[in-house]
């Protein structure tokens, strides 16, 4: 057992500030999970409390299967309290919720001065709690969030892309801290990250061994119906901030989609450029997507008679729903009072419907476990609302579930 400070197998990189996140061109040869750069995290606002935080840039795969560099953070427990166990620390690969597509909103780059900062800060209590259990934590930024260039936009909710980020940082952690990160890991995510966790669990077999379970807190689901319903509203809504993000994700799945043919002239010319510049909260403002009526977002004909590009957009939205075959135990958590991701937003399908779909898809395994907190169960006084308060409320039950899966089978 080791009680000292971690020493990564790879030499630390001295690139200062955000230059660390700029991928080298061309990328060095290698395979997914190979570290490109590593250094101690120099951004206290991004650090997981109580841990030893490392910033990493590693090889992964983009939505189209091409090599990309993806950034993230790897945190190890306090060695004095938790010496490295035989076989290494169990690992949680954390999938974060929606922050936007602007590089500076990435969890590893956010210095507490963006519209995404409260959303990035909230889960750190949970992640610090994981360290307190003696588990290491890996936190991907996802593809092109933190590392994006002018021609590379974060493919929001594009399932395969997210899965590669969540999984390949596990490999990077094992290679960086050989002998200190073990073979058993779980994926846990919230909101966008809940959906990403389910996709990661689906893609894990044959890519990254050792997955013992996946936990999804208020996972994004059934996006197609929400977008179509929103396109009929004759009023403004801050929730239309998700329209450009979803279009960015659709472009990851189908680069042939032309945003100009999907969006109305006003939305394309005035508002679409904001997706690269603003956090999700910034996109919700009245001077951005929060100030356009639902029925003004898209070119005429949508959703009743979509043109070819809008139809392709719809197909990508449908593919984002995480109804997938998964081989490991899955735990889904949802609060009935959540206003962001809804349990049952009748007449549209919500998380209740997703659980029914997953249960049917995985019926031979019986591995889908649903924890639905009823009305009033989750405290409503959290400034970020019940959508985030569910993370804290569920922590004891989630921890017990993970501990049973991560325990050494010997």
TrEMBL record:
It comes from the Bacteria. Residues 1-23 are annotated as: Disordered. It holds the Pfam family LIP. SUPFAM superfamilies: alpha/beta-Hydrolases. PANTHER family: LIPASE 5, PTHR34853. This is Lipase. It comes from Kitasatospora albolonga. The lineage of its organism: Bacteria, Bacillati, Actinomycetota, Actinomycetes, Kitasatosporales.
